Amino acid sequence: MLTISAAEVDRALTFPGLVETLRTAFREGAVQPVRHHHAVERPDGAASTLLLMPAWTDFQAAGGSAGGHIGVKIVTVSPDNNTIGKPAVMGLYLLLDGGTGEPEALIDGQRLTQWRTACASALAASYLARGDASRLLVVGAGALSPFLAKAHSAVRPIKTIRIWNRTSANAEKVAADLRAEGFAASAATDLDTELGQADIVSSATITTTPLIKGALLRPGTHVDLVGGFTPTMRESDDDAIMRARVYVDTRAGATKEAGDIVQPLASGVLKPEAIVADLHELARGQREGRGSPDEITLFKSVGAALEDLAAGIAVYKALRGQSVVGE
Q1: How far is CA 316 from CA 26, 108, 110, in A?
Q2: C-alpha to C-alpha distance for 49 and 89, rounded to whole angstroms
Q3: What percent of the chain has pLDDT over 70?
Q4: Using CA atoms, how far apart are residues 325 and 241, in angstroms rounded to an integer?
Q5: Distance between CA atoms of residues 2 and 89, nearest Å
Q6: E-strand stretches of 111-219
Q7: pLDDT exceeds 80 at position 63
Q8: What is the rounded distance in angstroms from the CA atom of residue 115 to the CA atom of residue 97?
Q9: Lowest mean pLDDT among 120-129, 302-311, 313-322
Q10: Any idea what DSSP says for residue 290?
Q11: What is the pLDDT of residues 68-125, one digit of tens each?
Q12: Residues 6+ apart with CB under 8 A from 252
């Protein structure tokens, strides 16, 4: 069994490559039971969340062929970690042989999650963002923010990246790290102004008070909502939902777990039939993406276990291939 570090995940993947891997995964599908979602109460701080996300190759869809893989991700989300300089999201990914159940790899789950989450957003943007989108606003300066910046830049001609965060020093740090890698990134101080100028707004926060104000979005904007993984969290307001054509990564997940979808559904602001498509339907060509240059599109991601499975297999195959070559 391979033990694969974050650095090895970085060496194994590319943003354009993983976007296409995920496109294939959503087109072909996988078996992915509803993830286990448990609150871990703590007496001295905010509750943590324990997520168990299993998935395996759909052998029936593949004609009953042997082989394939089984994977499960174990993730904890601990909001108070930010106060001690640690990422809120921690996790491991276990990849198993689909035929025998033998462990194949134990992969750094935090890094795998960052890669697959950002590339799922970029996959959505490949259908929903304008082809000439060049100005990206990233809301939030957590560990995921540079991945979102790089992933969106892999599918659209991004020329300017703005990073906004409640703590401006954190936004500047992310921007400086991106500049060191050759991206034209800078910190933003006025979120409302930035919302009115961006071609793509990518938000990854755990706020319960909406930051993305729909009234400020200009025609043609694509909104990518990555945070808000519980029904009580919400990054966008009702105006954003009402002005946009709404898409999700998976209907089952988004309509049960994502506050940006659950709350508007409950209030009647969003009707179930108004969710235009999920990533399965977009990847299979069953539903259309952006219909005109001026429409506002909104994509809500809560994460799908098949994304982890596809990314985990890609990492395992890349590093296993390197190992064989080096022997």
Answers
A1: 19, 12, 16
A2: 9
A3: 95
A4: 51
A5: 22
A6: 135-139, 160-164, 185-188, 200-203
A7: no
A8: 22
A9: 313-322
A10: -
A11: 899 999 989 898 998 898 888 789 999 999 989 999 999 999 999 999 999 999 999 9
A12: 34
171-192: per-residue pLDDT in tens? 999 999 999 999 999 999 999 9
Distance CA 30, CA 62 (A): 10
**Residue 67 banded pLDDT, cuts 50, 70, 90:** low
3-state secondary structure of 183: coil
Q: Which amino acid is at 19?
A: V
Structure-token pair, residue 106:
């134990």
Give the CA-trace dihedral at 107, 113, 116, 121, to 10 degrees.
180
Report which residue type is found at 84. I
Question: How buried is 82 (Cβ within 10 angstroms: 0-12 exposed, 13-18 middle, 19+ buried)?
Answer: middle
Q: Where are the beta strands (DSSP E) in the chain?
A: 2-4, 36-40, 48-56, 69-77, 89-97, 103-108, 135-139, 160-164, 185-188, 200-203, 222-225, 244-248, 275-278, 296-300
Classify the C-alpha dihedral 209-259-236-301 as positive or negative. positive
